[in-house]
Amino acid sequence: MRSCYCGFVDEKSAGETVVLYGWVHKRRDLGGVIFIDLRDREGVVQVIVDPANKPAFEKAGDVRHECVVKITGKVVSRPSNMQNLDLKTGKIEVHADEIEILNTAEPLPFSLDNYVPVSEDIRLKYRYLDLRRPEMMNRLKTRARIAKAIRTFLDERDFIETETPFLTRATPEGARDYLVPSRVHKACFYALPQSPQLFKELLMMAGMDRYYQIVRCFRDEDLRADRQPEFTQLDVETSFLNELEIQAMMEDLIRFVFKEVLAVDLPKFPRMTYHEAMTRYGSDAPDLRIDLELVDVADLFKTIDFSVFAAAANDEQGRIAALRVPGGAKLSRKELGIYEDFVKIYGAKGLAHLKVNDKTAGREGLSSSILKFLSDDMIAALFERLSPEDGDIIFFGADKRSIVNESMGALRVKAGREFGLVKAGWAPLWIYDFPMFESSEGRWHSVHHPFTAPKVDNIEMMQKDPGACLARAYDMVLNGSEIGGGSVRIHSTVMQSAVLELLGISDEEAQEKFGFLLEAMKYGCPPLGGIAFGLDRLAMLMTGGTSIRDVIAFPKTTTASCLLTRAPAQVSKAQLDELYIEVKKGEDK
Q1: Given 35, 69, 103, which residue is the final one in a domain?
Q2: E strand or H helix at 445
Q3: How many Å apart are CA 56 and CA 194, to the nearest integer?
């Protein structure tokens, strides 16, 4: 039996005999003495095999890279001039008495050294090897510590961890469901949950009062670096707390997690309305480590003889936003073309700019393709509003408000990163006062979900102007990523029915899809609210990863496939027949 992990052997163990298990990270034969770096999940320890110990030395001669071995030996302190302080175990070494090869290993398809680049497809295909790398193993260990800290915090505050079903029915929550056919119920399907939303509301109606769950959720949607078809969230629901009380408790939770896991004291969580965030940053999840801000300038260009600016300036749905980037005047024409192509990804038709080369030279100190359209008064007003310095560049986005917000908000982040304007540390904040509804294709849709409560209890006011209605919803943002989102829920059957009606959901459809929830609300539903945190995204940020795939043991690719197991895959006709399913033949296999 192992006496300790490799990474835990230290000076206190000097003189003791230890039994270690692990993988051979490296093997070196130096003048007859064999050195083995033995690795397990907790770290690496150096083992020395002396030729005087013939049985052990012969075994060490058979040891190869990534062999699984058992080593028994004595811990010896290294001389001070031979210590490796970059290694946790660098002050000691183990002198082997016995070596047992438990299993051999074929040559690996890639090196496990962190500095050796490996394509992500290869890493995912051989994920079990990729996870042997200390960097990857440490990320999973950190993720486990995050989950432990969450449970500690919530358990101490009387939350009850409760599991909810994975096999449920399809409900409209904004993304496609993964469907599971039922063998017992012919032509019927379960749906994997996009979230436990309805069940956690039912738990509040049952009187649980405080619930949480670290739960797997599923969404059949297009993927990005921070999206997966199956993901993990911390799901929380409470009774009798308003939004400010919920936010205060969840802020304390995240502070506790950072302190426990990273020994970091998070700064103050500022609060910002959705409208302010979109106006200043073009995003409802702004990265406050970047000081750059968007500035409205449409009022300066209402009479400009430049159709793109004039149209946006005089359109109630339009916006002209300016973004000053310090040092940006050095951008070449080619680099400016890259920035212009970048904003087009978000629907922008182009990207105007103004380089400030020398303020004292007036118009002659500026360069821009739109300079001829700018009057001296316009330039003076721009300078007063934006306060540029020599060497700065001012970018302009002019279009529909939504397009300007998205494109210029993304440009702000891109420029901030490329010009080294991202400050170190952590920048959390709360975003609140989200719109309750948004309109598309001639009907209203919920911005969050149809169970979010409006800020006004007056149904007539809500129905009269749904676009002006604000929701009792809130997001927690960290370094430009939304890590949690929640709301106070509707607990009145009258209000719930009014919201569903406004969304164009008939009584029949409502009863068909979530009549069980509406029924439960009739029997004494408490005021309730909650939040869900993306555990994968939180772990990614806390470990310095660039994708949530970095902190998921066995993730899918961006095409929702598993390179390790080759899922999804076809199944036999017999299985399909048993489920009463016939596959429609087509071009795609």
Answers
A1: 103
A2: strand 443-446
A3: 56
